[in-house]
């Protein structure tokens, strides 16, 4: 179960080989622009900025699965994220996180590896340097939560 063996698409539709993140710790998040948890973008950007120099990246996957809270186009999503929250971490094309037809291969792998799929926007998966999903954190776990920061630190320290 190696996330970094998959391919996906950037928000602009260009193909992305997730192997580019091999050797890094990543936090995969299903994001939405019109959610009560949307202010978490600021904390995610802070984590990305703070730990990037140590081999860490936040990977944002917009999803309209929960409450229709990501209705925008790719351009609208990019504009919202950069203008309102200064997001410069990678954003990918809108995906389906829920199980069933059309589920993103990224979320299929993450769900199978952890036994958890997001039940709302801003679910977070911590992925180790080897591409193996390590842990799932629900929407209510804020980016600055001690348990999330501790898990990131441990993953970064691991060989």
What does this structure look like?
There is one protein chain. By secondary structure, this protein is of the alpha+beta class. The protein has a single domain, classed as Glutaredoxin (3-Layer(aba) Sandwich). Helices cover 29% and strands 18% of the residues. The chain is built from four helices and six strands; from the N terminus they run βββαβααββα. The protein has helices spanning 40-51, 74-85, 105-114, 146-157; strands spanning 7-9, 15-17, 25-31, 56-62, 124-127, 133-137. The protein has a four-stranded mixed beta sheet with strand order 4-3-5-6. Strands 1-2 form a two-stranded antiparallel sheet. It is globular and about 40 Å long. The relative contact order is 0.22.
Shape: globular
Largest sheet: 4 strands, mixed
CATH superfamily annotation? Glutaredoxin
Query: Which regions have little confidence, pLDDT < 50, spanning 5+ residues?
Result: none
Counting helices, strands and paired strands, the structural category is alpha+beta
Radius of gyration: 14 Å
Average pLDDT confidence is 97
